[in-house]
Design goal:
The structure is a single chain. It is built from 2 helices and 5 strands. By secondary structure, it is α+β, with helices and mostly antiparallel strands. The protein has a 5-stranded mixed sheet with strand order 1-2-3-5-4, with helices on one face. A hairpin with a 5-residue loop joins strand 2 and strand 3. It is elongated and about 45 Å long. The protein starts with 6 loop residues before the first helix and ends with a strand.
């Protein structure tokens, strides 16, 4: 049976190392304007598994930055990280198989007009290390 991994925790720890100038987290802080840029990673309540080993997880990643240009630039870097760099990589607890974008990075409305949000949704196929 498929053993599920904590994809948010794994991506947050890897994202923190990959993007040292950004705050990488799952929940937004009330002090968001003072913690830009921020990358928010949330697993969606969807996906599935093959019943044997491989899990398909859907992950929403939002980038918050002071300007639209900064948000788009960082979102493109995150896109490359997920779709190219994570694919085929592994760590102590997880092996990333295929990764892909379900929705490409695009500006998403946000109530605070002092910052911009750009987000995308990804599917990540992974399994625990044997």
């Amino acid at each position: 049976m498929t053993v599920l991994v904590d994809i948010e925790l794994e991506l947050i720890s890897r994202g923190t190392a990959r993007f040292p100038d950004a705050v990488v987290r799952d929940e937004l802080d009330n002090n968001l304007l003072n913690e830009l840029p921020t990358i928010q990673i949330n697993q969606l309540p969807a996906g599935g598994d093959d019943g044997i080993r491989l899990a398909r997880m859907l992950v929403d990643i939002n980038v918050y930055a002071a300007t639209r240009a900064d948000a788009i630039t960082l979102a493109r870097q995150v896109h490359t990280w997920v779709t190219a760099e994570l694919r085929g990589s592994h760590g102590a607890t997880i092996v990333f198989a295929r990764t892909g974008a379900i929705t490409l990075p695009a500006e998403r409305p946000y109530t605070n007009t002092e910052l911009r949000r750009v987000g995308a949704t990804y599917e990540i196929f992974c399994h625990p290390v044997s």
